């Protein structure tokens, strides 16, 4: 663990993923952190991306918005169109959507980033921290919609 800030938010994300039994997302997030800790930045980025995708899939499947695994862009569109994020927050959510659409794995396709040694630690830290805070954001929004769904019943 390279900084306390990241660890604090990781603990919150782990607790939320565990609370909602999003075990696949939880396992991939922990793997991302483990790979980051041993400086295997390529595998850390791969697992960070999988963790956010798995979180979105879990939310969409629990809400019965999908019944099969979808692509990241499909999941983002479903989350936006299904009002997981309230309309009045959609403008603020735009920056999160843009972060979710970033593919950190594209780094390894660049000529100068072929191995983990070539991927800067600060980029991996940013991608991992963005993933962690995005997971927290999405699960908190999911929890809010669950409360609203209970009131409607």
Describe the structure.
It is a single chain. The chain is mostly helical and 153 residues long. The chain has one domain: Four Helix Bundle (Hemerythrin (Met), subunit A). The protein has six helices and no strands. Helix 3 crosses helix 4 and helix 3 packs parallel to helix 6. InterPro entries: DUF7014. It comes from Pectinatus brassicae. This is DUF7014 domain-containing protein. Pfam families: DUF7014.
Task: Tell the overall outline.
Answer: globular
CATH class: Mainly Alpha
Q: What share of the residues does DSSP label as strand, in percent?
A: under 5%
Could you say which structural class the secondary elements and strand pairing correspond to? mainly alpha
Number of domains: 1
Domain DUF7014: 21-143
Protein name: DUF7014 domain-containing protein
InterPro entries: DUF7014 (IPR054280)
Organism: Pectinatus brassicae
Supply database-style keywords:
153 residues, mainly alpha, Four Helix Bundle (Hemerythrin (Met), subunit A), 6 helices, DUF7014 domain-containing protein, DUF7014
């Amino acid at each position: 663990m390279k900084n306390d800030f990241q660890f604090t938010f990781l603990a919150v994300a782990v607790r939320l993923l565990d609370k909602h039994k999003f075990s696949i997302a939880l396992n991939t997030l922990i793997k991302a952190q483990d790979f980051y800790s041993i400086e295997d930045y390529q595998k850390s980025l791969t697992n960070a991306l999988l963790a956010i995708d798995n979180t979105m899939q879990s939310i969409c499947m629990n809400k019965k918005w999908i019944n099969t695994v979808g692509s990241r862009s499909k999941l983002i569109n479903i989350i936006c169109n299904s009002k997981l994020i309230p309309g009045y927050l959609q403008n603020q959510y735009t920056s999160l959507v843009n972060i979710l659409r970033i593919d950190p794995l594209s780094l390894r396709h660049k000529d100068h980033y072929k191995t983990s040694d070539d991927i800067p630690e600060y980029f991996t830290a940013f991608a991992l921290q963005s993933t962690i805070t995005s997971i927290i954001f999405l699960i908190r929004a999911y929890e809010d919609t669950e409360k609203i769904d209970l009131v409607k019943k």
